[in-house]
Model the fold of this input.
Amino acid sequence: MIDVKTKLCCVIGNPVEQSLSPQLHNAVYDALGLNYAFLAFKVTDIKKALDGLRTIGVCGISVTIPHKLEVLKYVDEVDKEAQVIGAVNTIVNDCGRLIAFNTDWRGALQALEEKTTLANKRIALLGAGGTARALAFGLTRKKAKISIFNRTIEKAYQLVKDFNLEGAFPISDVGKIKSADIIINTTPIGMVPDTNQSPIPVDCINSSQIVFEVVYKPKETKLIQYTKAKKATVVYGYKMLLYQAQEQFKLFTGIDAPIEMMEKALKND
Ligand code: NAP
Done:
């Protein structure tokens, strides 16, 4: 029941139609009887949007593509990890003070570590945006050997410099991607509505590799179809979404979200 006491949370991004965060958070609010609601807003001007959300007292904001880096300029405080990562996916409104966090990196590591250990693994990280920064931060802590493959090579070099990684290459350098133990896609290639696209061709993948696809809409992206065709191991983006959302839920409500309840909400998609 929405009433005058309802606390509002939201996700902001562009595009944002693919986001499963509203259904995930709202399902748990309902199940636990919390007087919260979670909406999605398509946002182009991030500064104006944050000013508005702060003013009307929205209590929690999830940040998605393409705002995870720019948003740093407009918050009042950034926690230590998010500062090192240089990207934010979670903002808590503490009585008008916007405090920024990053829950992506722990969510991604948890999803990956269900399938493999990470120390000394050669990782081809596709993309150099907000999500790639979170992954680079987390995987460095696990002592993995990370190379960045990106369309804009300058951004790849920047990541290599910021996190002391192995090397930067164009995303078209498929020969190098072939020799990785783990391939991670952090680009939106393959996301709805362009579901017929893959960031790499099928012959980049072999059966001994693990492919982690952060895109979760659709669940079975073209890249995942390729991975299955090559009998390689899949790590699904919805697992990362789930684990990062569990931490986000706690930051927004102060309550531990039951993971089974969240997973059920995603499976209903
Ligand atoms: P971002 O900061 O905008 O970065 C996007 C990256 O993808 C950039 O490196 C960009 O390359 C590259 N890219 C974009 N379009 C491309 C294209 N057509 N061809 C080649 N490269 C392209 O975005 P983000 O916030 O990291 O989000 C990326 C994706 O991750 C989104 O699909 C998002 O939904 C997903 N995600 C999923 C989870 C989860 O929980 N599963 C969490 C976070 C994000 P340039 O540098 O050349 O522009």
Remarks:
- The chain has a mean pLDDT of 96.
